[in-house]
Specification:
Blueprint lengths: L1 E7 L11 E8 L4 H11 L4 E4 L5 E2 L5 E8 L4 E6 L3 E7 L4 H10 L24 E2 L2 E2 L4 E8 L4 E6 L22 E10 L10 H9 L7 H15 L7 E5 L4 E3 L1 H9 L5 E2 L5 E3 L1 H7 L6 E2 L2 E3 L6 E4 L5 H19 L8 E2 L6
Parallel strand pairs: 2-5, 3-5, 4-20
Antiparallel strand pairs: 1-2, 6-7, 7-12, 8-9, 10-11, 10-12, 13-19, 14-16, 15-16, 17-18, 18-19
The chain binds flavin-adenine dinucleotide (FAD).
């Protein structure tokens, strides 16, 4: 078990902000998990679990606690029939490596979530999703360490309360409680994928005259679309979508439409306003705020061009929210989570 001291959170997160974490422990073996929690308990310090830091913001005061980074590796097929394949992947695997693993074998269900940065263990936490697919459609269970009891527990999908960017792992009394060791997903074996696909994906398919729809073809299309509009964390600092889309009931949707706003109806019937659309309509695309730039290609993304301080992010976020609220009456909600300061 590798314990490091006084590590800048800015080096652990793709937004590249945040002061020092008192301790950082990389978990590369199952036996490291209870050891690490014991270490934190002995020092009377709180624990924060992380993967790739692609949805996490560090604050200037750092974290007076212990960050555990999941490095548990391994992907295995547990069972397979003509229709279905059940896969278990360890939480420290790179999410996109799992997508590649599935697509190479012709398994379908996560191909549209290609190139989402981060780890497998974080994927269920905010129910990641893209281009019409999300975790709730494929997850069967997670295996997690519960530091309150010291046990490894299996949490089934029905107990995860998954909705848009929300689950028991990030919302409610059990938020932040578990260390997700592995996930089990069920994919379609030898699926026949049929158009129409998610709007922007379908547009790309039509424009490129693509007529064969294997999971790998869809993976390639999604990867191309993303490369053209989303920042590569290795090059540009961001946390992906900085604000959440806004879900509306029928009455709110009618009010929004009456104001001339575009309301999307999802395939499941739910109604939503795209937060990026509001930011763009407000004329903020490409604008700079305190060292952050509203991406010219995807207005939902804030790129950290030169900011070194969380205070700059706070100022940028609050200005954008105020402009959008004053124009449209919707208060945008931040998507990435923030590491609390730690010990009181
Ligand atoms: C350029 C870019 C594009 C993105 N595009 C998308 C997208 O299309 N769709 C999407 O949904 N997201 C997207 N994201 C957000 C991000 O990729 C996902 O949220 C991803 O799941 C984060 O993984 P991570 O390992 O980096 O998580 P981290 O940022 O390390 O952690 C995120 C949360 O999960 C918790 N966590 C992490 N690992 C564990 C574990 N093993 N056990 C328990 N809790 C854990 C953390 O405590 C934290 O609350 C994007 C981000 C970037 C930078």
């Amino acid at each position: 078990m590798k314990i490091q001291e006084n590590i800048p959170i800015s080096k652990l997160t793709t937004m590249r902000l945040g002061g020092d974490a008192k301790y950082v422990i990389e978990i590369s073996d199952l036996s490291d998990i209870p050891e690490a929690y014991k270490f934190a308990k002995e020092k009377n310090l709180p624990v924060w679990v992380m993967g790739g830091g692609a949805n996490t913001i560090g604050r200037d005061e750092g974290f007076d606690g212990v960050i555990l980074i999941n490095r548990l590796r391994g992907i295995e097929v547990l069972s397979q029939t003509a229709d279905e394949v059940v896969i278990r992947a360890m939480g420290g695997e790179v999410w996109d490596d799992l997508v590649q693993f599935a697509c190479e074998r012709g398994y379908s269900g996560i191909e549209s979530m290609s190139k989402i940065p981060g780890t497998v263990g974080a994927a269920p936490v905010q129910n990641i999703g893209a281009y019409g697919q999300d975790m709730s459609q494929v997850i069967e269970s997670v295996e997690a360490y519960d530091p309150e009891t010291g046990d490894l527990v299996i949490i089934g999908k029905e107990d995860m309360k998954m909705s848009y960017r929300s689950t028991i792992f990030n919302t409610g009394k059990d938020a932040g409680r578990y260390f997700i060791v592995s996930i089990t997903i069920v994919l379609e074996n030898e699926a026949t994928l049929e158009p129409p696909f998610y709007n922007s994906l379908q547009r790309y398919i039509d424009e490129h005259g693509i007529t064969e729809f294997s999971p790998m073809t869809i993976r390639k299309c999604v990867s191309e679309i993303r490369a053209g509009k989303l920042p590569d964390p290795a090059v540009e600092a961001s946390a992906g979508s900085f604000f959440k889309n806004i879900y509306l009931d029928d009455e709110q949707a009618a009010e929004a439409e009456a104001k001339g706003l575009k309301v999307w109806t999802k395939p499941n019937g739910s109604k939503m306003i795209n937060a990026g659309y509001l930011i763009e309509e407000a004329g903020l695309k490409g604008r700079e705020f305190h060292g952050f730039k509203v991406s010219k290609k995807a207005a939902l993304i804030l790129i950290n061009e030169s900011a070194k301080s969380y205070a700059d992010l706070e100022a940028a976020r609050d200005e954008i929210r105020k402009i959008v609220f004053d124009k449209y009456g919707f208060m945008l909600e931040q998507e990435p989570v923030e590491i609390p300061a730690g010990k009181e």
